[in-house]
Amino acid sequence: MILSMRWLSEFVDLEPQMPIRDFTEAMTMTGSKVEGFEIEGSEIKNVVVGKVTAMERHPDSDHMFICMVDAGEEEPLQIVTGAQNVTVGSWVPVAKHKSTLPGGVEIKKGKLRGVASNGMLCSLKELGLTINDFPYAIEDGIFLLEEEGLFPGQDIHEAIGLNDTCVEFEITSNRPDCLSVLGLAREASATFGKPLKQPHPQVKGSGGSIGDYLKVTVSNPVICQRYMARVVNNVKIGPSPRWMRERLRASGVRPINNLVDITNYVMLEYGQPMHAFDLRYVKDNHIQIRNAAEGEAITTLDGVERKLSTDMLVIADGEKPTAVAGVMGGEYSGIHDGTSTVVFESACFQGASVRLTAKKLGMRTEASSRYEKGLDPNTCSLALERACELVEILGAGEVVDGVIDCNNDSRQPIRLPLDSDKINHFLGIDISAEQMKEILKGLEFTIDGDDVIAPSFRGDIQYRADVAEEIARIYGYNNIPTTKLRGAAEAKITPYQAFEKRVNTVLLAQGLSEISTYSFISPKYYDKIRLPADSPLRRSVTITNPLGEDTSVMRTTTIPSVLEVLSRNFNNRNESAWMYEVANEYIPTTDGELPVEKQAVTIGMYGNKVDFYRLKGIVETLLDALNITSWEIRPEKNLPTYHPGRCGVLSIDGEDIGVIAQAHPKVAENYGINTEVYLAVLEMNPMFAHRAADRQYRPLPKFPAITRDLALLCDDELPVVEIEKCIRKGCGNHLEKVELFDVYRGSQIEEGKKSVAYTVTLRSSDHTLTDQDADSAMNKSLKALNEIGVVLRT
Amino acid sequence: MKEALESIRSAVRQQLESVKDLKELDNIRVKYLGKKGELTAILKQMGKLSAEERPVIGQLANEVRSDLEHFLENTSEKIKSQLQDAKLAAETIDVTMPGRTAPMGYKHPLSIVLDEVKDIFLGMGFSVVTGPEVEKDYYNFEALNLPKDHPARDTQDTFYISDDIVLRTQTSSVQVRVMEKQKPPIRVISPGRVYRSDALDATHSPLFHQVEGLVVDKGVTMADLKGTLETMVKRLYGEDAQIRLRPHHFPFTEPSAEVDVMCFHCHGEGCRLCKGEGWIELLGAGMVHPWVLQNCGIDPEVYSGFAFGVGLDRLAMRRFNIDDIRLLLDNDMRFLQQF
């Protein structure tokens, strides 16, 4: 909403000379947020009115003229122009030496083909104006001024009324009343404590009776809350007067002709959308406000044919819809050359219905965006009278006597008790009931004893809290004190939150950086990670209105997100990237139900000497730090996302909780990563569930340990975890540590075999172990090892 | 004999002056104090002395021996010290060479700021709760006084999964879930991802992050809301930071406010950073709408509360002077390693 300050001054007298910033600041602080302001023509400097006193052809040009211009100085200015429409006696805008025009254009004196020129005569465009602002001017040529009271040297802003200040407001959806000069005037009146000059439009009328021209039937009184109309005869279409054009221009609306301008003017002034249409096109002179019939269509003003549905309200004549109520008129319903009788419509439609219709038709108009917020049916009559008053003031036609008014407004005024104690307690302030009443009166509330009644244009007032807000915003939010919350509160970090924090800490400490990725992906990414065609993970929660396919489904796995980030880093030539994210996977359930949002830790790595065991080491450290002790890993060859020989599935107590793997080279290739990529995914919930109890202190060892080295020979295929199991079994309670320190294949080792070497540390908590104890443990271990074909290397 | 002892003493003293290393020193020790050393040889001849001379010479001999030992010890210390100095000098390294670092991971800037926010609110007695991102329309809109035809829905372009399920557009959805489950007193914050169908550019992202706050109890006032937000802002931006509340409209709070923080750059004067306003918009807040309380089974005649929602991305961008929101989700290592 752009507000002309000059227009505002018709409704409220502000402090003269109030700096504009004081105005915008104060309005913002009472709730009418100012986005910015512009002083019209502020870019134009040192441009004045001049009168051409003499002209001659430029001796060295076939199209230029040398003009002598009286610009209010002692001597006339000599200015060369190429324009063809200037004559002696023309009033012209003169950009003098050292002047500025819109767009930062600077004008200086100079020579044009050898002839001195002390400035420039300006066109409309050069002043930042259009033909709509001054219909009498021409587009290509000098702007020949036809204003009254011109004199040489007069500042151009003053001469053409280009000196308004335009303030842009951001009006919230609950205050459609403020999308108008009157509404903002009410706010300004309350903000600055200045009285509001209530408008009282007067229509003289010209006789006749509207009943002879028009009949109106409303068949849906719920949606059509009010329909009013007046008829204007002997219409004379022409340009509007300058003051009206100025205000429209200042409000960002293009002047068109007097009738259209009147509808726009009234809408801007009172916030009430108006419609003017030619009576000739109202078949049977009967306007029906009804729901569209099955299969009906309308070609709207913009030339598009639109199919209507039966829940849409239309304005129809005896035959067909002529307008979509509250949205847009039909193609014939406007004002045309030759229009002689015009109907002015001022109506109020239910917001929700207009909103739905506009949405279904995919057309949001100025009118619909106002109606959908809920307008006040009471404004209809004020606006209609104002429009007709303007018709008479402008001499644009003769207003026929009589008004059609179908008023179905069944709203009751909102009456609320003014409980000053409760309001004070709610806001944390202490002001008297009288002060509250004063504030509310300033906002046009009616005070009735201890009750307040909201004005009808304030559809947003429903509750005591709404009244409290009115008081608070005029009293000033900044005058409300600041206090600390009282009372005890039990803040806590849940065990899961502590667990999550631990995951982050441990991964960060191991050199992985935290990332944050999009939750939505393209369904094609499942192909990119080679997910099998029948994988249940391909069933995703799908967004019905995505921005694009790339962000159209909620991921069921975080792998594509992490690969994408690795890929971006690789493409950006980052030598290495070690990263992780704790983030959600979205697993659909049944239709109509919410998906399960599962948190997973996803690790992605390339570069900086990462290999499978580096990644596994990071995961082992994480599990250890999380107190997860009973995990196992088994090789897995059948997950196409991963390298078949370098992939392990992690499980805890038989439940699979994640994967540690090298990405399959084809997957890496799909992401354009030309190096080994390592990935791990661990599900948070099962890890959380399987974590051991909190750690307890164990006394430091009192007795010495014995260590034994075991050099073993086994089949190359045998996973070493099997060897470790045998050693654990053989050593029993005394085993403190079993460490693999060497794996060797090659000379001196039989083909298909490998040598594996361990250091085993044994210790007892209650006595010093003897060599016999150790020998016995080793023998038991070897016996178990022999059973799986592992022998001592000799 | 006396002369012999004196000459040994001065000879040793003289020789020690030129001793270079411990081996040479040891040679001297052996030469004079060893079993076959010169002093030992002299002492062996003590028996030949007269009874008068013996104690005198004996005393002198002891004195010389003690002196020699003393000299040797001192010299030894001196040599050792010189040797160590030489060794340390040889071990000199260039301390300006770069250190060897252990790999360290970097917390995401959003997490850094979120952790700060959490700590601030934990300190004020708030618990941290979460809610679903794929959410029922009911929790995201309807229960927040935003029925299906409400024009305020237009300000939040929504991703739909179905007619009744959306990607939540605001963490405010968690408010209702909390109030349904928990009776007052309630004091929670709820951080998380939110979604709006805004095309990605330097200042908009279809996915961003909010932190919701909710307090419901008997006698909670708008002054408490101001105090709580002021505390948050001062903890985040320093004790000088100032806020102002502007009236605004949210369907689920009444009164509603937008909260600005005084521009850090110009301190309210108006500059390019704050677009001439002197203030920068920080968050939305207000007193929980009585309808919302009622709808969650909390009697608005007995209880009142406030709620607020902060954009975490904007908080982080302001905090670290990041000028493009896309950087936050690009996760370029060169970006991440700056924090």
List keywords for this structure.
heterodimer, A: 794 residues, alpha+beta, Phenylalanyl-tRNA Synthetase, Chain B, domain 1, OB fold (Dihydrolipoamide Acetyltransferase, E2P), Phenylalanyl-tRNA Synthetase, Chain B, domain 3, 7-stranded mixed sheet, 20 helices, B: 339 residues, BirA Bifunctional Protein, domain 2, 2 domains, two-stranded antiparallel sheet, 9 strands, rod-shaped
Low-confidence stretches of chain B: none
| Assembly annotation | heterodimer
Largest sheet of chain A: 7 strands, mixed
Strand order of the largest sheet of chain A: 27-31-32-36-35-34-33
Percent of residues in helices of chain A: 25-40%
Most extensive interface between two protein chains, with residue counts: A-B, 89 and 84 residues
The assigned CATH architecture of the largest domain in chain A is 3-Layer(bba) Sandwich
CATH class of the largest domain in chain B, please? Alpha Beta
- What is the typical, i.e. mean, pLDDT of chain A? 94
Radius of gyration of chain A: 42 Å
How do the strands line up in the largest sheet of chain B?
A: 1-4-5-9-8-7-6
Shape call of chain B:
rod-shaped
Structural class determined from secondary elements of chain A: alpha+beta
Beta-strand share of residues of chain B: 15-25%
Describe what you observe in this structure:
The complex is a heterodimer of chains A (794) and B (339). Chain A has 20 helices and 40 strands. Chain A has a 7-stranded mixed sheet with strand order 27-31-32-36-35-34-33, with helices on both faces. In chain A, strands 3, 4, 5, 6, 7 and 10 form a 6-stranded antiparallel sheet that branches. Chain A is elongated, with a radius of gyration of 42 Å. The N and C termini of chain A lie far apart (93 Å). Helix content of chain B is 42%, strand content 19%. In chain B, the strands form 2 sheets. Chain B has a 7-stranded mixed sheet, with helices on both faces. Chain B is rod-shaped and about 130 Å long. The model of chain B has no long low-confidence stretch (mean pLDDT 91). Classes of the chains: A alpha+beta (794), B alpha+beta (339). Chains A and B meet through helix 7, helix 10, helix 12, helix 13 and strand 27 of A and helix 5, strand 1, strand 2, strand 4 and strand 5 of B.
